[in-house]
User: Fold these one by one.
Assistant:
Number 1:
Amino acid sequence: MVETATGGDPIRVFLLDDHEVVRRGLRDLLGAAPGLEVVGEAATAREALARVPAVRPDVAVLDVRLGGGDPAGDHEGIEVCRELRARMPELACLILTSFDDDEALFDAIMAGAAGYVLKQIKGSDLIEAVRTVAAGRSMLDPGATARVMARLREPEGADVPPELARLSPREREILELVGEGLTNRQIAGRLYLAEKTVKNRISAILAKLGVSRRIQAAVIVERIRERS
């Protein structure tokens, strides 16, 4: 068994990335670090959801975008984070991404991620990030988090209809497309989101609007257009 520098149990790490070369690099990097042990890996969300509960890692390092650039895989790693955290609240999820994306950061925070780092991070810093989240501390950049929280507090201007005041900018964008009659799949393709993410967002939008069907939401959009 791998031992930590202090002689305790190693930090157990699981890897999710759809690129084999990236997984191999992460496995070699983290597996060679004192006190860390890579106990499993997966290339898809389905594999991760099946394997993580079986190996019981302390930290899951999750790529944001799965599927080789397919829009259906956008933010899928964050959906994995959300599901794993629901099953295993003690698990620390570290989101790893190539893109500095406030929308993904927002989704990661809401999914319960303990950290969010870019793939451009130095190897030594990534090792430290894994140790940090394993210890129960956050690895969310304060500046980026502040930007997301500012977006959550929108709207502040008077040009936003009161019906939409509780919606985030992304939710208002999705609602506009619902008003155009687009399906979840079409909206996902237009906004480069996973179809499941769109479905979840629309459910949240309907709840905030106090309606139960998307046709009712579309009527609200049409009424707003008529007033403008």
Note: The two ends are 67 Å apart (CA to CA).
Number 2:
Amino acid sequence: MPERNIEFGKYGAHGIKGHEAVARQLDRLAGFISTPITARRGLMARLHYLTRTPHAREAARAAGLTVTDRTLKAWLAGQRSPSKQNLQHIETAYRTVRRRNVARYLTSRLNREGRGTRVEFHPLNQSRVSRPHQRVVQFRTLNVRRWDPVVAAWAADDDQALDDAWFGDVTIELGSEYGSYEYVSNIGFAA
């Protein structure tokens, strides 16, 4: 694809891909439980979220939490503790289910009935790039009106689809310099 960076960072520039910055911001907006899963409170909050209704239990199983009901009851009662591997499965299932649950709400909030949401593109950091190799990349803003493919890819945890939706559908709207914003220091927006 034209405008894609082939050897990013060759001269010392550093940043992250735009779709990764978008995923981080969407994760912040999703409101995940902030207490770590290694703390009893964090574990209990995640388990309650994943087991409070039959629909939640079914979604947790579909997301990869495949333990018996007896084991779940023992964890909730505090009689047993999950292994490190099961803690990872619980965290993954929790994040997957939470993303799916908030995706429709986030899409609605970000689309704002067709008005869209203002997005800030903070350019990549060129402080380590020697002067002759630096290029002018300015702070830009853009009003994004169609968030559906971006949020759907984020909710499905599909990195490639998120990259395609973000770079191919959103960043291209910046005009002829859109390739300069494949890597950024931050992407900012609110819902």
Note: Residues 33 and 45 are 8 Å apart (CA to CA).
Number 3:
Amino acid sequence: MDQRVTLITLGVQDLARAITFYGALGWQAHPTSVDGEVAFYDTGGLVVALWARDALAADSGVTDGGGWGGVTLAHNVGTPAEVDGILEAARSAGARLARGGALTVWGGYSGVFVDPDGHLWEVAVNPGWPLDDGGRPQLG
């Protein structure tokens, strides 16, 4: 297996609500999305999909116990002001802030929001991972 991830699927309770939420953050669903069933987002080398949580659980062969699944997604940016702006945009779109933007013990700046379906997103500046022109982190 190659060392790469190509798709992350987020199980959602209400697909229309989730599409509206991510749209408010500036995300645009890809034309190959299936209206009312699944939304795909091209994030520059990785696809993020939104799919009904019960369908995702059935397809994955698991029972959905609800709650946090032990995963936090991350979005790296270049400045603390960008972190704060994205956190505020997410809050305005219906997210709950789990942790406001603040300096971190590892020398960065980050905050965390929880989307309407309970998925955690860290928005961070990591001085050890400068971003290239495409916004991709460069592991030092």
Note: The radius of gyration is 16 Å.
